[in-house]
Amino acid sequence: MILAQLFGLGTMFIYLSLTILGIYTMILLIKALKIYIKNNS
C-alpha cells in the first residue's frame, strides 16, 4: 500500500517536472524567436 502511494507520488513528481520543463523550454524558445525576429527586421 505504502509502495503504491510512493510510486504514485513519484509519477506525479515526474509529470510535474516535465510540465515545468516544457513550459520553461517554450518560454526560452519564444524569447529566442523574438530576438531572432528583432535582429532580422
TrEMBL record:
Superkingdom of the source species: Bacteria
Key words, A-Z: Membrane, Transmembrane, Transmembrane helix
Transmembrane segments: 12-33
Protein name: Uncharacterized protein
Native species: Desulfonispora thiosulfatigenes DSM 11270
